[in-house]
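Ticket reopened. Same input as before:
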Amino acid sequence: MKSAIILFPGTNRERDMAAALKRATGNTPQIVWHGDTELPDVDLVVLPGGFSYGDYLRCGAIAANSPVMPEVIAHAEKGGYLLGVCNGFQMLTETGLLPGALMRNANLKFVCRDVHLKVENTQTPFTTAYAPGQVIRVPVAHGDGNYFADSDTLDRLEGEGRVVVRYCDAKGELTGDANPNGSQRNIAGILNEKGNVLGMMPHPEDMTDERQGGLDGLGLFTSIGTAA
Amino acid sequence: MIPNETPITPELVAEHGIKPDEYQRILDLIGREPSLTELGIFSAMWNEHCSYKSSKIWLKTLPTKGPQVVCGPGENAGIVDIGDGQVCVFKMESHNHPSFIEPYQGAATGVGGILRDVFTMGARPIAAMNALRFGSPDHPKTRHLVRGVVAGVGGYGNSFGVPTVGGEVEFHESYNGNILVNAFAAGIADKDAIFYAKATGVGKPIVYLGSKTGRDGIHGATMASAEFGEDAEEKRPTVQVGDPFSEKLLLEACLELMESGSVIAIQDMGAAGLTCSAVEMGAKGNLGVTLDLENVPCREDGMSAYEMMLSESQERMLMVLKPEKEETARAIFTKWGLDFSVVGETTDTKRFLIRHNGDVMADLPIMELGDEAPEYDRPYLRTEAPDPLPASEIEAPKDYAEALMTIIGGPNNCSRRWVWEQYDHLVMGNTMQRPGGDAAVVRVDNESTKGLAFAVDVNPRYCLAHPYEGGKQAVAEVWRNITAVGAQPLAITDNLNFGNPERPEIMGQFVGCIEGIGEAARVLDAPVVSGNVSLYNETNGVGILPTPAIGAVGLLPDIDVMATIAFKAEDESIVLVGGHGTHLGRSTYLRDVLGRDEGPPPPVSLVNELKHGDFVRSAIRHERVSACHDISNGGLAVALAEMAMASGIGAVIDMPVSPDLHAKLFGEDQARYVLTVPGAHLARVLEDAAAHDVPAEVIGKTGGPALRIGTALSVSVETLHHAHEAWLPEYMSEEL
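Engineering reply: fixed in the latest deploy. New output:
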């Protein structure tokens, strides 16, 4: 599988992402500069974590208007796989590729810790390696991960199986305590209508090596590798 | 704006923090009255923060060399060899005064400054830590300061993208009016691609890089070199404002620039900004420097030479460029959207010549600005050694369980999770041991199996009671922390926070601690390769506890062979290494449970530290140990509780009730560790210990849901965990 990671000024998890993709697929992704207006021919484009342009405006808002973004959108419209993690998820909502918005964490503090996620839909190109309802443990690291959408949108996302992962406890219960940021209905990651664009706040890329504490995040990347 | 040719009155001199005899020295040196800009430059170069005038004479006594040392003190950071053609660049630095005035920005720019020190030398930062000290929890400002400092440290490091992997947080009333924010950073570089500040070659362009210069932070270093009075809050304009985004760009641009072969010398603009960086580059190269200030990128119009020379705006660098590489270098900075401006050149005059629109604003001898700075051999009064306080004179707790819960659930020994969960400690994907253990372990890159261990520590109450033993103990403690994960300590950095050195008793604390640090660093082969001195940590004449924070770096050749503190399995033997506890003077038990802070601190036998530590490291490296924790604050009982809490597995300790049980459980005797050893390896571990004359004794076994110590104590791990985790979040959730 061929992939590309978009590098924005202020991006800081591109190395983590590149290492994870290499572990899962054996291929090293290409790095594409935010000022480029062409994308290489790849199966997967990744919008990685970090603080693009400093995120001094709304997170991801400037990145959503960067020179490379029309190409990223075109890639998705052609059916190419597009993954946005953390800051990348924020960009996807800012571009309108995914509905809703990511607000400041409910307790107003940055949070970095492992969370449990329940994989709710394993019929997506990003999750086939997981078992339905499987509980995985991966870290979050963000200050603005509080997913919000109006209840009609939430109902629709749920009805269409587009809520891919939710925050849960170790047993898979969707509790308030397990929700690190106040997200509506414990939503951690969602899919677009066509099923080729995934945005999620947690960092599966940082749980792809036993030495990082486990391999629970690896399945996401092997899934895309299989799909592509 | 005050004109440059303003008459220099005694008041103006005093406002610049320059003493009358120091001003006379200036007059003697230049043979005329200085201009206003020149006075500002002297004030910037000769303040305590930049000149180390009270401490230099003592810092020279510290051991700084060793086969592992690539670069010792005097550069932006220290450098040690980590093998395979790689080096680790690291340093710790204080940002105390600014953080008290404006906690978020003060802490944030402290992190920014130390990261710049590391990447100025060509290293990509891979880990950050911090040592934070706040006033008493019931002081009205404490919550506000904790919240602001932690958010500031996180706000900067998280955005920049360096994992903040460890540190310490302590509360004590001596910091009520003067908190301590000490930031540590470490980076990795290739040994043949290290960059220094020393300029070479005449007529080489001097280039300004990074963010624009504003009016923030003017006289920051001078402010940091004075005591606080009631007016501390009025000094807010001297605090800089941080922009981690610009710093991240500056990092990437600088590393790209260095790789392009364009750089002759490079120096970050930290304390005293443009002045200090330009003077250092020139003076180190035995060259003069001419600057034309109209070329300095400014954030606002109408800035004077005085303001530009003294601004401490952040995220800026100064570089001496290879002239033929100017276009390559400019293109790199344009790509990253940063300023790049030729602002001057090197000369053979050894003068520091500052022009602004053609007018000479300052013309000073460059070598003397640094070399001729005042240097004081301040009178000092040694702290009297405290009377002995045998454990037999200290009462045992009525309820051992309650005593343990008081300690692990109290302000100074409770979990710091509330703090480090606000720091991104995982970015870069190489964090092999997260915060909460003895030392953090970070893999050097994601392809490598080599790791570095980092720890920072000091016990200021020990240092107050006995500066020499306290200084020794601080080094021994971080050395043990590094050893306890299985790594070999390589070198240390010191961040020496003290009160007013003009008071002999404070100077006595400083001298005692330095002597202790030096002795421990020598014996343990952990040379001091970088550091920072922060004096005048006083408010209204009351000094802080002497606080020489020590940061250490160790090498772990194979990250798959390391120890963590968590018990791993039931029914493994628990081995106490280094003997039973006997010493309760200055202990956590004495203070937290009995409310007394007295007696001598535990003496440190460096010979034993070395012997016991080398034994423990060897046992870990031979994979005979399943968990390891060093014994420090709170003694054996707290160490065991922490190992249990980290795993959820309890332990049963065979220790009968005896008159000295409180010393055995809470004594803070040094050079001790707790190990867990699987049955198959136990005989060998005990044999090795005996062969090396290391006291090692099986004191119990892991297992069960509770920590049980004889008949004295039985608490479920869950109860321990709850007490340990509760205090800080509950404290911080109360209204400001």
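Chain A touches chain B through 29 residues (CB under 8 Å). The two ends of chain A are 6 Å apart (CA to CA). Please confirm and we'll close it.
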